[in-house]
TrEMBL record:
<comment type="similarity">
    <text>Belongs to the glycosyl hydrolase 1 family.</text>
</comment>
<keyword id="KW-0732">Signal</keyword>
<dbReference type="InterPro" id="IPR001360">
    <property type="entry name" value="Glyco_hydro_1"/>
</dbReference>
<dbReference type="GO" id="GO:0005975">
    <property type="term" value="P:carbohydrate metabolic process"/>
</dbReference>
<keyword id="KW-0326">Glycosidase</keyword>
<protein>
    <submittedName>
        <fullName>Uncharacterized protein</fullName>
    </submittedName>
</protein>
<feature type="signal peptide">
    <location>
        <begin position="1"/>
        <end position="24"/>
    </location>
</feature>
<dbReference type="InterPro" id="IPR018120">
    <property type="entry name" value="Glyco_hydro_1_AS"/>
</dbReference>
<keyword id="KW-0378">Hydrolase</keyword>
<feature type="active site" description="Nucleophile">
    <location>
        <position position="439"/>
    </location>
</feature>
<dbReference type="Pfam" id="PF00232">
    <property type="entry name" value="Glyco_hydro_1"/>
</dbReference>
<dbReference type="GO" id="GO:0008422">
    <property type="term" value="F:beta-glucosidase activity"/>
</dbReference>
<dbReference type="InterPro" id="IPR017853">
    <property type="entry name" value="GH"/>
</dbReference>
Amino acid sequence: MGMKRLLLRFCSFYLVVSLHLTSAAVIPAKRFVAPFNRTSFPSDFIFGAASAAYQIEGRARQGGRGASIWDTFTHKHPDQVVKNADLCEDLDGQGYYLREKIADHSTGDVAVDFYHRYKSDIGLLKEVGMQAFRFSISWSRILPYGKVSKGVNPEGIKFYNNVINELISKGLTPFVTLFHWDTPQGIEDEYGGFMSSKIAKDYGEYVDVCFKEFGDRVKHWITLNEPLSYSMNGYASGTFAPGRCSSYVGNCTKGDSATEPYIVAHNLLLAHATAVKLYRQKYQKTQKGKIGITLVTHWFVPKIKTPLGLGAPQKALDFFLGWFLDPITYGDYPASMRANVGGRLPKFTPEQKKLVKGSIDFLGMNYYTTQYASPMLSVPRVNLSYTTDGHIDMTTQKDGKPIGTPTALSWLYIYPRGIYDLMLYLKQKYKNPPIYITENGMADANNSTLPLKQALKDDMRIRYYEGHLWFLSKAIKAGANVKGHFAWSFLDDYEWDAGFTVRFGITFVDYKNGLKRYFKKSAYWYNKFLLK
């Protein structure tokens, strides 16, 4: 899952979209018009499930794979030697390291072992009735040191060929994400990864290998997953790899929360556009595929109904979704970002504007939840950070009442209406691009004391998907150009800084018993919904 611990989650479009807001999170059954199932969507609408390499693959140090920044982050950040072996592990004889930024002190070294179980997992996906599988390629499994000049890993090429071929043999469409946050440690060490403009060249060479090796079968490419999450959590709050932030923001030894997120985001956009240009010029005509990007947002609603309060969600949205989608659609960052951030916000050259503008064939959109937004009562003048530059406060409560039904994550409340409002906002504001909901889901707590039979009863997840799909079908009827929906996630997996403390899957992974897979009740619901 992509959107973990986002500190800025806010978007509303009150001037264009009429918000008939309710505080209800789960849609009562009586509101569904029978039958509500696969036939409620266009015949060419794609239903699938999603994943990411570091979260599911495992085999982190085998098969020729090089280290990524997430390997380093989960093992060695911060570099504090401790004596409590219950909270740490010996790495290559170098001593014990506390992994205090991961909730359960775990790593993705094994994850859920998709590397060895991909055939059976794809078989389960087919059994549920899904039509597509979104997965990411580990950059360092293809290029162990991040650069073509330092060698291509044939074992990595073989593995992804096997996954793609297995999907196609089962009648499933591969949607491939080229970058899901796992920057090779080699280029992070060499020049700072996405802190440097040098990365556009290395990223371009990496995706060139992928297009060449897999593009004859892959027809849906996603350049980046959630550049917002990567920039903000990795460089403003320091909660994600590479764990950089200002000392006044969090527990980081290096970083600048006021400048680095903007530099990284700028370089991500240029890397994305470089990949799109390469694909369109060199491969698209013969391979006949499409290429896009996956962005993330919560839907945000006004907390107060004053003029400033009503304007807060839209202004905040500029810092959130517009940060990336404005340059892609219009060629530059939102004016409100220029006003608030000033010289800390990089500028596009005329050539870069031309490169970035129009650089998607489709838009991937990740949506999980909704929050309230309101103007900050006191705007910071010192200790600046991307997380406060929007001058917006966010909350899940209003008048002591939650915005929706709570889940196992403090930021994720169930609010299906938000996906409808977001789709209509994209229709109005961003020229109604073809959209795939590339992630959508909710978390349960990983309660190891629950009997297996009880752990498989995820009725709340069924209600989550039922409500969101109902509102998504309504958005399509209202003219939103939505082409598909991917559940996050098919398997329980390694959830970044949450480790294994939460479960998003419609398939249960038994961490105590050899990683065995069991369908949850939601998987059977999906099977029935898809009329399989």
